[in-house]
Amino acid sequence: MSGPGVRPFRAAPLHDGGFVHGAVVDVGATLFTAGVSPLDDAGELVAPDDAEAQTRCALAQLDAVLAAGGAAAETVASLTVYVASDRRELLGRVWQIVDRWWPATPPAIVVGVTVLPYPGQLVEVQAVAAVRL
Q1: Strand, coil or helix: what is 17?
Q2: Which of 23, 71, 109, 131 is deepest in the core (most CB within 10 A)?
Q3: What is Dmax (Cα atoms) for the chain?
Q4: Residue pair 55/81 in contact by the 8 Å Cβ criterion
C-alpha cells in the first residue's frame, strides 16, 4: 500500500507478522469514516450471522464511502474491523478476507466485540484515509 499521501512503515524492533505497524499521512485532508455496516440499499442487514459474507459486503460499502469522500482503498491509513465473536478462528477468517481485499493491507486490526447494532450483525468496519488532492 502506498497510495497518495500515505506512507506505511514497519518498526524494525517489532515482530514482522507480514503486516505494517503504522502509516504516516502527508499533509492534506483526512477522511474518518463512521462505522460501515453490511446493509443493502433498503437498509436491511446482508447475510445475517454470516461473518464472511458480511465482511465482503462491509468492505464493498467502505469502498463506496471512500469514493464519496475523495479517497480510495489505496489511501487507507488505518482500518478497524469489529467482529461480534469471541472465536479466534472466525476473527482469523475475517482477517484473511480483509487481507485479500487490498493489494497491501493497511495498518489494520480485527477486534472481537460483544455485540453490534443490528440483530444478526457480526461485522462492521471503520477507516481513516488520506483524501486525494
Answers
A1: coil
A2: 71
A3: 48
A4: yes
> Rounded to whole angstroms, what are the CA distances from 54 to 12, 30, 32, 103?
34, 26, 21, 20
Measured CA to CA, the distance from residue 55 to residue 121 in angstroms comes to: 10
CB 102 within 8 A of CB 31: no
Q: What are the pLDDT digits (tens) for 58-116?
A: 999 999 999 999 999 988 999 999 999 999 999 999 999 999 998 777 788 999 999 99
- Reported as a single tens digit per residue, the pLDDT across 11-28 is 888 887 777 788 787 778
Q: What is the pTM of this model?
A: 0.86
For residue 34, give the C-alpha cell: 463512521
The Cα–Cα gap between 104 and 15 comes to: 18
- For residue 8, the one-letter residue type is P
Instruction: Name beta bridge partners: 8.
Output: 23
Positive/negative CA dihedral, 17, 86, 61, 125:
negative
Separation between Cα atoms, residue 40 and residue 32, nearest integer Å: 22
Query: Given this model, what pLDDT does residue 4 score?
Result: 58
